[in-house]
What does this fold into?
Amino acid sequence: MIKAKPKPLDEILEYIQPYENILIVGCGGCVSVCLAGGQKEVNILITELEFALRDTQSNKQFKGYTVERQCNEAFLTEIDEFAEETDCMLSMACGAGIQLLAERYPHIPVFPAVNTIAIGVDRDIGLYEERCRACGECVLAYTAGICPVTRCAKGLFNGPCGGTQGDKCEISPEIPCAWCEIYERLKAQNRLEDILKIRKPMEWRDQIQRKFVQKGYEKRYLKED
Amino acid sequence: MAKKNIDTAPIQKILKKNKREIKLGLKVCAHCSLCAESCFLYQATKDPKYMPSYKFINSIGRLYRKNGKLSRGEMTKIRDIVWHDCVLCSRCYCPFGINIPSLIALARQACRTQDLYREYDKEPTEG
It folds into this structure.
């Protein structure tokens, strides 16, 4: 799932400085699971903002509302009734949710209250690790289920760089070298030939905004020539 | 979370605003169970509690019939239905056109007004 972290409070305070009526919109999806932007975190943010502004002459009014998913417009309609009286919105969703919210209310400034970090795994409650950058050309089949894009500091596709220190990455002795792990796992599975094959380079040039239609839905969304 | 009484006013506001959709859904549902096959949780378990119709009837349907006047315990049961038994993937399908995800989302809305929602720091996710 997508993982996010709350933004520093000072940064949020700077965004909302000119506005009085502020709607903080939580999301019941991924950011709830990673404890960054669900209803509980909306309530916490309101308390923190009110506390931070307690000694100022601020007239700011905060209202919190959590929708089930900010990345699906069907769930955003619930906010319509508050939009009229809102000067700005703080979205606690991932980058996709924030953009859909901003698209629905183009006349209202929408600011992010979280930083979207990664597509990651849950190691424990509150402990997450990045595992995927949604590059669109998954190579895990021949890298033993270890993503070189995400787990190699340089995102290399063809083996370790010269900076490898033993089996660790040159950026930190605590970070394993992704390519050493790939090699060891493939070797253990007797699949080393998988990384010896010559493959086409990654099409990084296609890394602009992607839009896709799922198989079976072509007739519904794609125009025939 | 401290146990609080249920504040029926915000629930009734949701019920009133969406009365037509809820009433129609409850009236049109023929209990045909065809929606069951579109729920991946039902497919995996064959447990009737995962049938989309069961979920909306026993959440927003129950709230509607009781006009929001439920105890906290009953509201907690609804919370469990709409969060634990449904991920709101919105893939469920009704041959009569009932928008089941929308009705379940309304039940979640009602729960949220009572500070009832899934707490992922206390109840780790299974998926």
Q: What stands out?
A: The domain at 2-118 of chain A is CATH 3.40.50.2300 (Rossmann fold). The beta strands of chain A are 2-6, 21-27, 61-67, 88-91, 110-112, 114-124, 127-132, 168-169, 172-176.
